[in-house]
Design goal:
Layout: E1 6-8, H1 12-31, H2 37-58, E2 64-67, E3 71-76, E4 79-84, E5 88-96, E6 99-106, H3 108-113, E7 120-122, H4 131-134
Antiparallel strand pairs: 1-2, 2-3, 3-4, 5-6, 6-7
Length: 137
């Protein structure tokens, strides 16, 4: 049996819900334009940028997590980051506000050779799995 890479994609439901909420706030900002211009401009600009991010997240292959024998490739908003297995020390979950995120420790030698002082990384999404499911990996 051939070992193919595991590719996990984020759920579209969360992006669609946030898209709808952002659209609502943009409409609210437009309706408040005459009464409170500064708040309306802030609302339209901020939630307009959020709307753009959620639209990009809905485009196929704009975001995924690929795990194979070489390492981990994270792609978010069309930007890809590759971390080889030799650079990963271990994985754990961490509660961050109301969410559980997956974090990983990076080998100090890898971070020094790449010119950064990063010791910990995190996945941008849980890819449809709960924190308990990630603890099994």
């Amino acid at each position: 049996m051939k070992n193919s890479p595991i590719i996990l994609k984020p759920g579209k439901g969360k992006s669609i819900l946030l898209f709808i909420i952002s659209t609502g706030f943009v409409c609210l900002g437009i309706s408040l334009w005459e009464t409170n211009t500064s708040f309306a401009v802030f609302t339209v600009v901020f939630f307009g940028l959020c709307l753009l991010v959620f639209i990009i997240n809905l485009i196929p292959n704009s975001s995924y997590l690929k795990i194979d024998h070489q390492g981990i490739e994270m792609k978010s908003l069309f930007k890809s980051t590759f971390i080889p297995w030799r650079g990963v020390i271990g994985f754990r979950t961490k509660n961050f506000f109301l969410n559980t995120i997956v974090v990983f420790d990076i080998d100090q030698h890898l971070s020094e050779t790449s010119g950064t002082k990063i010791k910990t990384g995190a996945f941008p999404d849980t890819y449809g799995m709960s924190g308990k499911n990630w603890q099994r990996f």
